[in-house]
Design goal:
alpha/beta; 546 residues; single chain; eight-stranded mixed β-sheet; six-stranded mixed β-sheet; Rossmann fold; 12 helices
Length: 546
């Protein structure tokens, strides 16, 4: 507080104690599967289909992953993390490998006209350039090197793509004014520049280092040199490894499930998602192994995420009329099951074929979240699929009714609205289970609240645990809940009917305070989907006038 020394008006700023809580993202999807290129040691964020194509190669008829991501963005998705699974080799499988070239020397020949450049490869040491990630994709790239005409110790390096069909070439990256010396005073050391800036290659320098020489007879006025090319796979060819796809036997895991690593025994596979800030939706296109799905359901509970589970491609009404088996345990609250598969034209194979529904469904989750909110069921006439060519199974109303009460969300075709999602139950949504998390929007709203409040109350840690803190908590959490109430997220016409926030002496007794615990209780009245709309029609008797 300022010292008051003279008569007048003093202005002071007083902290309000307000810590606004922002809602977290609700439809950031994670897709896991095999791809021929892309990072393998991290979950990679892509924000468009073009972004996925650039980093993971686009559609590949050997795997469902690219198609599911394409369907996600085509149906309203905005952001997705990609986890690329690859074969580790061994057990009869082929290991994935990255293309590489080892350059030991660059010679600038100034005695010829025009000047020429020759590149020496092989041997020990020198500059090793390796594809940024493993796969045969790197075999289509080459390195182009051209020394500067005014300084033979410096050179430019370009990455060149060669179309394997047309053989047309295009420079995709170029790095000028490079040096082979780590002590370069201009900060243009080739290893540092490549590793910091390139999206296609990585660099390392061995011992002895790369040598740059020029032949005798350097002209007083150097002539422009002709760049030299060397294939990126001149030393090591890239290889895709064994193509991994989910097992077709729901009781027997295969190499795909091993790479997925759903049992938590290492940091690879699904656990690459451990380090991302947040993801909300999990899709493993085509995964049907029950034990693996159960592990993924548990993982989603831990991460406060929601899994979209695919039916089997061979499933029929008859095979599902008693409900899905083996995946309806306690952790199934964070998952929903969709049937049947969806037909779509495959430009790679030039034919229409069936795909698992999770990509379409995840996109419509995202679209519904954006237009209506996470509390709106991602189903109904507004949840129509885009880019499909029909469903593999046509269901009647009676069949849909049988599957619906078994917690199976059906995709249906209606003459006016096309193919739509026509169900909104979690895998705990069987009528006999009586779960409070029966419906997808209610469960996802709860996950949204949990994540938002978890992030938004971090400021509470280490604050004095007294009535002042409790009042600030009620203010901030209450403001967040009121904002959702005004958006129509809860039942009730008044805040008192819609939600409550309790943080006072009643739920924070001295025993809790002594343990350093502050308890915050938040309740909300969820909006239940109008799953069954009953219209009562009564014939009105004719009235006689007296």
């Amino acid at each position: 507080m300022s010292a008051f020394t003279y008569p007048g008006v003093y202005i002071e700023e007083i902290p309000t104690g307000v810590h606004p809580i922002a809602g977290v993202a609700t439809s950031l999807a994670a897709f896991v599967g095999w791809a021929a290129q892309g990072p393998t040691t991290q979950a990679t964020l892509v924000q468009s289909w073009a972004d996925f194509q650039n980093q993971f190669g686009g559609l590949d008829s050997r795997s469902y992953l690219g198609y599911a991501v394409n369907q996600f963005f085509g149906n309203g998705g905005q952001q997705a993390y990609i986890v690329r699974l690859t074969s580790p080799g061994g057990g009869g499988s082929t290991a994935v490998a990255a293309a590489a070239v080892e350059i030991t020397g660059i010679t600038f020949n100034s005695t010829s006209s025009p000047s020429a450049v020759s590149i020496a490869t092989g041997g020990t040491g020198g500059l090793t350039l390796t594809a940024a990630n493993p796969g045969a994709w790197g075999n289509n790239y080459s390195i182009q090197i051209q020394p500067r005409s005014d300084d033979y110790n410096r050179f430019s390096l370009s990455v060149v793509y060669t179309n394997p069909t047309t053989q047309a070439q295009a420079v995709v990256e170029s790095f000028p004014n490079l040096s082979a010396s780590p002590a370069d005073g201009q900060g243009r050391y080739v290893v540092n520049i490549i590793n910091e800036q390139s999206q296609y290659i990585t660099a390392s320098m061995g011992t002895p280092t790369l040598t740059i020489t020029n032949t005798p007879g350097v002209p007083s006025t150097p002539t422009p040199s002709t760049p030299a090319n060397v294939a990126l796979d001149a030393t090591t060819s890239g290889a895709d490894g064994s193509v991994l796809n989910p097992s077709t036997d729901p009781t027997t895991p295969g190499p795909f499930e091993t790479a997925l690593n759903a049992d938590g025994s290492s940091t690879g596979g699904i656990h690459l998602l451990d380090t991302v800030p947040i993801f909300n939706l999990l899709c493993v296109p085509g995964e049907i192994v029950r034990a693996t799905i159960s592990n993924l359901q548990q993982y989603c509970v831990t991460e406060r995420a929601f899994m979209i589970v695919d039916s089997q491609s061979t499933d029929t009404f008859a095979s599902l009329q008693n409900g899905p088996t083996g995946i309806t345990g306690v952790n199934s609250t964070n998952s929903a099951f969709y049937f049947p598969w969806v037909n779509q034209f495959d430009p790679g194979l030039n034919t229409t074929r069936a795909f698992p529904p999770c990509g379409f469904v995840a996109g419509l989750y995202a679209a519904t979240d954006a237009t209506r909110g996470v509390w709106k069921a991602p189903a109904g006439i507004d949840a129509s699929l885009t880019g499909e060519a029909g469903l593999t199974v046509a269901l009647t109303d009676a069949q849909n009714g049988t599957l619906n009460v078994q917690a199976i969300n059906c995709l249906r075709n209606f003459r006016v609205y096309g193919d739509v999602i026509w169900g909104a139950r979690t895998l705990q949504g069987n009528d006999q289970a009586g779960s409070q998390w029966k419906y997808v929007p209610i469960r996802r709203l709860a996950l949204f609240l949990e994540s938002s409040l978890y992030d938004g109350t971090q400021w509470v840690v280490f604050e004095p645990n007294d009535e002042t803190l409790w009042g600030q908590i009620r203010l901030n959490v209450g403001a967040f809940m009121q904002g959702l109430f005004l958006q129509g997220a809860f039942q009730g016409t008044t805040p008192q009917q819609a939600y409550f926030v309790k943080c006072d002496a009643d739920n924070n007794p001295q025993s809790s305070i002594d343990l350093g615990i502050v308890n915050i209780t938040v309740g909300f009245a969820p909006l239940y989907p109008a799953e069954f709309v009953v219209i009562q029609i009564q014939q009105m008797a004719g009235q006689t006038q007296s």
